Amino acid sequence: MDPQPRVAVVGAGIVGLCTAYALVERGVPVRVYEQGVPGNGQSGGQGRIFRHAHVDPRLVADAQDSRAIYTEWGQRLGVELVSGDGALAIGPAVEAHLPRLRRAGVPARRVGAAELAELLPPLAGFDGPAMLDERGGSIRTAVAVRVLSEALGERLVADEVLTVRPTDAGDVEVRSGGRTDRYERVVVCAGRGTAGLARDLGLSLPIRHGAHVRLTFAVRDGPAPNLATLQDSSGDFGETGAYASAIPGNTAYGVGLSESCVAREDGSLLDPPALADLADRTVDYVRKALPGLAPEPFEVRHCRVTELPWGSDGIAVWEREGVLFPAGHNLYKQAPGLGRKLAAAADGGELPQALRPEAELGAA
Ligand SMILES: Cc1cc2nc3c(=O)[nH]c(=O)nc-3n(C[C@H](O)[C@H](O)[C@H](O)COP(=O)(O)OP(=O)(O)OC[C@H]3O[C@@H](n4cnc5c(N)ncnc54)[C@H](O)[C@@H]3O)c2cc1C
Question: What DSSP designation does 105 have?
């Protein structure tokens, strides 16, 4: 067992798990509080897209960093954390992404209709702009949550944090359901709970809340030899923002639309039927775009989402009196690199300037 933990991490979603694991790498004793099941909040489900394509070149560089860490951790922990099947983008967004990726040294190239069919057999015929990000792929989300949780072992405790409060002695008190402890630093990675805990320190984070739906469809002819992830901005199949990733074994594909349903801060949806509408549109999209999938989903994943006002890939970290509050969206791919930066800051280092809110990292 570690000696008395110096740092607390609140939340065992992918961001908290990566931060805590990075602290362990640095030899920093850490305790992680999780009020529910690790990885069952926004990080739930079987897959996410790992892509390098971002509008903000700083995020392209961060994604390269995280991709390398996923490989390093996967090798150390004996699992595959990102598939080798690549990330495909189709539609007009390709024209802007390709030069940006090439400038950053990311292996990405145009692909034609024949190769598209090999990379993503369920896809309907498409002869518009298409690009393969060779080092992209499907993040093995459930595997990542399992192996990181196992690596943390008894450092991970089942408890809800009620308040995080700097003390006059210069440390930080964490009051949870079953204990009160003090730490040098605290990193709050509580997903939709982050804004509430930040308010204890007088911070009002500009987090937009929403809800999202992703449906999983079986691959019709059994496991696909290759199942690249998909981002479709084409509109050819009725939607200009659709995305998909594979589950391990390539027997099924999780598909969603980029749109979310807007929620109030208390979690209630502004327009509850809109979630069902998103699901119906996703089924409709699959029938047109992905005829190689079964037409009905066998699994549904509803998730809360949190976004920053400057873009759907926006990330920032607020810092006050020894407490760090990361927030943003599409964080799965960025979590290992973000986790190492948060760990360094919690271990007495400086938070990189690019992560401070005024830098608007990931601005669209
Ligand atoms: C359907 C869907 C598709 C997505 N697709 C992609 C994608 O393709 N690529 C990508 O990179 N990202 C994607 N994302 C976004 C990505 O999944 C999230 O950004 C990421 O999972 C957020 O992780 P997190 O650790 O910040 O939050 P969470 O996973 O929500 O973790 C927060 C944890 O904190 C715990 N917690 C909260 N309050 C407390 C408290 N007071 N005390 C103790 N514990 C607490 C919660 O129980 C939870 O486990 C997608 C998200 C959704 C919903």
Answer: T
